[in-house]
Every structure is written in structure tokens, then in C-alpha cells.
Amino acid sequence: MAAVIDEHIPNGRRAQENLRGVPMKHYDLLREGIFVFVVVAIVAIVLAAVYGSPDYPTITAQSVANDQPIAFLKTTTGILLGNDLSAVSGYGPPYTKDPSAAQHLGPIAPANWLGVTRPIDPAQAFVLGPLGRVAKINWLYAAPLKEFKAASAAQQQTWLTNYDKALDKATVSGGQVQVPPGDYGPVAPLMTAMLSLGQSGMLEGALAAEQGGSYYPYSFDFTRQLLYFANASPYMDTATHLVQQGNPQWGIVHETGRYPGAWWLAPYQFLYEIPQIADQDSADLLVVAIMTAFFALILFLPLIPLLNRLPHLLKVYRLIWWDWYRDHAGNVPKRGG
After folding, report:
1. What are 76-91's pLDDT values in tens digits?
2. Which of 119, 122, 165, 210 has the greatest number of C-beta atoms within 10 Å?
3. What are the contacts of 269-273 at 24+ separation with CB within 8 A?
């Protein structure tokens, strides 16, 4: 009996030799592609018309400084205190020289391989540098900045700690933060300068200039702008409100709110939902290692003994090509057992 309909075999001697005896079925790839595109386009248009599209305004330093001035100053004071609110202090490479802070699996620590490629001193890059630019155009802030820099580290910490505690009792009036009287040294006027810089919308530009952005007409590197509030309440509270926290909201597979987003990242997010993985200090590296091993397994599956026989044992292909096997199953020859 004929094992295959020859007109289904592509023209060419090599194709005829390689495919003769192989069960084949006519398949129009172009038609199927157009059909899928049209169906997906219709579904997307209908859903967009009925439900709209997520459009949450970008969170900027200006919006935080105007809407949450106390949170803005808490973040800024915390950066000078070095309490990790900037997501840089204690992070290690590529930002700071602390190899022990890098995520690792045993002796393997990929972040340490390249070392510090983007050196950032949080206090200088995020606060003192921008303040220095403000002081050049507003001499009222030059003296407090000079006094702060001249003070000892212990004295700076005392002023900052006192001001940070005072913010817990602060009030807002006319967009300005009022703190109870206390020993804050030059910190109070400096924080007023930072708040004014944020409310004016110029903080992002000052941060970009600190990393060399002033030498170009446009800046495409927003690393420092994003790191400023990375671990602070404005970003975290907004992420929670928009259902974009990682655990337990499955945030990386969402757009803002409940809109579907990067569904293909679900396997990664699933691993973060496992406490034994999520609670690890090197959870990110562990998840990447697991997914890399998984994709390597898929890539080399045809070469792995026993596993490469799974398609023949499971026979899923018969479900996919069920109509062909319905009509031609009797003509299929036995191949390799």
C-alpha cells in the first residue's frame, strides 16, 4: 500500500528522497497565519472598545513631591542615612563595591563577574549632587550644603536621624512640609531645597545630568530616576494599588490593575509563589537558573535518551492530526517500532 500521497511532497530530488514514506498532510501556512491574525485583531479591537486600555500616569519625582511631600522627604532623608530606600545601598555590583551582597548560588555569583560597571554613591548621586546644582543658582542653599559637607559623619547622622523622626509628626501646608522644632542643623533647608527641586519637575533632569546626560541633547538612561523611589512607599503603594506586586498579586503577568499583560512570564511568577524560593536572598538568580535549565531541557530533548521517545509513547500528534489519521491510519507504515 502507498504510504504517502506523492503530490504532498515538495518538488526537488533531495526532498523526494528524504520525505518518501513519511506521512504528510496538506497545510497552508499563509492561510492559517492570516486567519489567526484576523481573529486576534477582531478580539483585541472588541475588547479594547468594551473595556478600554490601561493608562495609568507615570509616577515622577514631581508627582510624588506635590502629592506626597512627606514621603518624598522620607525617601530623600533615607538615602542620606543609607537605609536602602534608594535600592542601591547594600545592593552590590553593578552599583556598589560589595561582592558579598551579590545574589549567588554557592560560589556562583554572576553579578561579581563584571564587577561595578555602573558605580553609584546614593548620597552624592541622588541628593548632594542635585543640591550642588541648586546651590549654583540659589545662593541661599550654598551655605547649608557647605556646612553639611564640612560636618563629621557622626554629626551628619545626628541631624538626619532627628529630621527623619520629625517627619513622622510633620504636617503639610501649601505644599510645604512643616516639622516640629529640633536640632536638624542644615538638613532642614537642604530638604526644603530638594522638595522644591522635585516639585518644579527638575529633579529627573538633575539626576540625568549627574550621570552624564547633560552632554547629550536627549537622555535615554533613566537608571537613577527609577532607582530613586525603587524601594520607597510611593512606588510600593502604587504597585499594590494597581495589583502589580510580585507576591502574592502575580504582578509581573499583569498590566495595570486586572488587565492581562505578560502572560508568558507566568512560569517565572509561579516559582516566586513557592515560599522555599521566594524567601531566599538569591531568589531572582535561583528562578533564572531553574528556567534556564528548563529551556535547556526542551532544547536538547531530541538528544536525551528515553525522553526523546516521549512523543512516540504519548502519541499527542494523533490528537493534533486526528482527521488525517482518521482517513489514512491504515496506510501508515510501522517505522522503528
Report:
1. 999 999 876 566 777 8
2. 122
3. 272/246, 272/247, 273/247, 273/248
